[in-house]
């Protein structure tokens, strides 16, 4: 009998004892490095935090029913469970009322978030398709992942999606790369994941093969352990948010020593002259020498000069983590990366050039053949108003205010209703205490959620959604060797419904059922998407079995064409026949288009601008530690934070925060202590890990602990969510990305009694039995 499969963004798993209470997941047998995150998703302990029945915030419901009730703010109120019938009725009536009274421009349906794997039951696609039929919704553009890079790179080289799928593959790197310089490591913890899922985890093996082939690794990062090669590497512990200055110091060295590739810059690039003038100090009176960079980055001048020479004389790949652009002026390190790689002239050669993030996902570096995936149509949105995704608090606080985005000017809409499915803004957004205030403004907030997450607790109507293990779907991800049938592995918990069925029921109540469902149920759609995909594959010359055989086999293998992938190879060989999609068709070391936008915080060439908060700022006297909030090793964002695998990483129930021994000693703190992180925006408790694997003056608190504020005025967060401390400002007025990594804090001992953690409990009023 063929195995049954279940997929998550972190892996493909085989299901044993499906549809019994002994159902369990084991890694796909051909995965060389499976992620341990997976199996815990089926642990029954996670069910304690499930939303079992539709629930409504008490004072919101009382107002609907015309009853008296003390009006408590969102997040502090009780919940009341209601029947599905009443819940659907409330949602349909409220959506109709708000759109009739204020128009669809008052409905925010951006609904950012990763939700779960599976091409059909993708919550965000479902909510978008549904809202498009009710008149449309205010959408979002960009992502928290790469707000700055996604906006920028299309002007300089190519769209990020294209570059991500075109990363030079691991085997080619092992064969050709002599020097691998990475800014922010190649964290194995992050490479567990790929959007859609991962069949073959390649990155640990890819790095080991490079090490065995004799490649030299330099990891420029405040954190040592975000690179594991199976051997020795150099660790350059840079001050956070200063990488642009280091790259400028390297570029200046190449320039003055005449070690750059003048031919490549001439034949394949535009705008070098202006960058050269900037490096030489002709634009601002400051020469960007290696010595200048040392004063900003803390990396010694002699090391910078030596690295510049080594880069020019070896086949060099330069990689950059996305975290660097998730910071104030986050456009600049990416722009500087492109300029440096252009000067080295190895772009498009095997093993040379640049990477826009080996490590962020398993996709980058996969040689596997790229095919189209099944697609669920979202229809057409008639509302043109949008926000750059990370500007949500600004939108709620300042309706009507103007903002700029990629050179255009736009206005924030006046939002009255929010519908969210498949994301967690109380995980992903910065300065959560500010978001909590802004979140009180809309009249109604509706959320579909499997769990009582902080978002669900901050909503008015909560509709219980299923998890992937409770439904059938299709797994597909880019450049992976298989497409799988995700077969329901367990019974649905409580009265949860699929997002699709939730929207179909509301659509029926609003008399748009036929347009939404096109006469299909969920399984009918899964079949339909597969059959459309089968036709597309036949067009592309790939023979895949019919739907019945697909279900029977559980998996379709995508044959590999065995060709190496080399980023920008065709452009390098013949830039006239294969021009880039940039305005000049070439790599833009300076951009006239961006210069033409006239933005002070993002001029037309890569440059160093000190971020709002960093260790060189005057504020560092009061808040002397730079806090990095990276991606968590034991989960994807906030998902399954309540699972045994995630909980096993906590200290006294709190998220761990890493600190250098010198910093701990200076504060009288010891490993295992619960400590308080604080700044002017907020405070949280976390469990201390003392390690010499972090630069002194830097601390690291990974994201994903469910937001758990006390209800008193201190709003102390009890569980270790870094976003009560982070800064909610845009990267720049060009890209408007998030600046999560730009953040100063102080850490002190916590001597009071430890408050109980309530993060994974349902809210008041919900007993969950
Ligand atoms: N400080 C700081 N903040 C950050 C970052 C950082 O580096 N530092 N990183 C940012 C980045 S890169 C990202 S991408 C974001 C991620 O932010 P999000 O994508 O919002 O985070 P998730 O925890 O993945 O949220 C997914 C939610 O969907 C729910 N869900 C899962 N399956 C389903 C389903 O089938 N139906 C429904 N209705 N819901 C479902 C889950 O329970 C979960 O609550 O965070 C950002 N925030
Ligand atoms: N396990 C797991 N994997 C994930 C995710 C997850 O939630 N869990 N999320 C996925 C998502 S949505 C995304 S967008 C990607 C994100 O991918 P990234 O943004 O690349 O990941 P981060 O872990 O935030 O940061 C990577 C490394 O950069 C370093 N770093 C931070 N600041 C600086 C700096 O100023 N300079 C230098 N040189 N280094 C710095 C940090 O120490 C960290 O180890 O990861 C994906 N992978
Ligand atoms: Mo992301």
From TrEMBL:
Q: Could you name the domain of life of the organism this protein comes from?
A: Bacteria
Q: Which UniProt keywords apply?
A: Metal-binding, Molybdenum, Oxidoreductase
Q: Which cofactor does it need?
A: Mo-bis(molybdopterin guanine dinucleotide)
- Positions of transmembrane segments: none
Ranges for the Molybdopterin dinucleotide-binding domain? 625-743
Q: InterPro entries attached here?
A: Asp_de-COase-like_dom_sf, CT_DMSOR/BSOR/TMAOR, MoPterin_dinucl-bd_dom, Mopterin_OxRdtase, Prok_Mopterin_Oxidored
Molybdopterin oxidoreductase domain: residues covered: 50-509
The record ties this protein, via CDD domains, to: MopB_CT_DMSOR-BSOR-TMAOR
User: Keyword Oxidoreductase, does the record have it?
Assistant: yes
Family, similarity comment: Belongs to the prokaryotic molybdopterin-containing oxidoreductase family.
Its name, as the record gives it, is Dimethylsulfoxide reductase
Please report the organism this UniProt entry assigns to the protein: Salinicola rhizosphaerae
